Amino acid sequence: MERARPPIGASGGGTYRFLVFALPGAAVYVGLVLVPMVMAIGTSTTDRNEFRPATHFVGLRNYGDLFSDPAYLLTLRNTLVLTAIVTIVPNVLGLAIAQLLDRRGWAFNAMRAVFFVPVVLSSVVVSVIWETIITDDGLLNRVLRGLGVAHPPGWLSDPGIALYSVAWIMCWQMLGLCVVIYLAGLQGVPQELMEAAAIDGAGPVARFRAVTWPMIAPAITICTVLLMIGGFKAYDQVKVMTNGGPGIGTTTTLAFDVVVTGIDGAHIGYGAAKATLMLVLIAAVSFAALRLLRRREVEL
Asked: Residue 286: how many CB atoms within 10 A of its CB?
């Protein structure tokens, strides 16, 4: 008996439908991401300046100037410190809070919503709100003076702590994202495994280390990579609260420095080199972290 043949053009129709759905998104990605990226890399090899019409090819000179520029090295240090804080603190606190909220009841559902609200707010809005709170004459310092602190810290005016104040605001805003992701991971842990571990005599700490920790490994990977990228791209908070100060470059980040150099300073070529190096750095660190964390998921 002859087998039924698929309709003529069935495979072609599937390919056509795939192209119809894929091409618009691919065109937008190529036009708005890949093409500007290639253009920026090309511009980074020139001395383009909006105040000087003539543009010359300079090769890798801009990149060489970056690593001999003390201001850029300070910016790189600031970004690494900020990224480390923003990656570690929300991860640790988010997992702890998720553990506390991993229960049923309307009160716990309400608390989950409360923690997630800052995530959906604009970074500019969050920065403006917190700036009014922690400025020298803000609410926080007024409370501290009322409690007897004669000289409260200059959260945004002291060069020694301004960067950590910005990092704290970013941690506060990203905390809810980690809480939600970890809650999803915790709710995916089979209760049978937890009950079996309890029957075997494992306490809360042992159950967390042997059962919960391996099961939420994908959630840890997601949170870590997202927080790391967010730290490297920090711009809004710095622009609104400190504008790179106080002083010279004490809170300047890579993203902020790119805008100041390329747009405010009109040094398009040098700014493009900074943007390209920032892209390479984020891609390399994210790839390395993702690879290590994925390997950890398999080992666990």
From this structure: 16
Q: Using an 8 Å Cβ cutoff, are 222 and 181 in contact? A: yes
Rounded distance between C-alpha atoms, residue 93 and residue 83, angstroms: 16
Mean pLDDT in consecutive groups of 10 residues from the start of the chain, 300 residues: 52 74 90 92 90 85 91 94 96 94 86 89 94 92 92 92 95 94 90 84 84 89 94 94 90 94 90 94 92 77
Tokens representing 104 are: 């049923």
Considering the entire predicted model, what is its pTM? 0.88
C-alpha to C-alpha distances, 101 to 91, 94, 202, 205, nearest whole angstrom: 15, 10, 22, 17
Contact yes or no for 172/165 (Cβ under 8 A): no
Token pair for 277: 């190096």
Dihedral angle computed from the Cα positions of residues 249, 252, 257 and 263, in that order, rounded to the nearest 10 degrees: -80
Q: What is the number of H-type helices and E-type strands within the chain? A: 15, 0
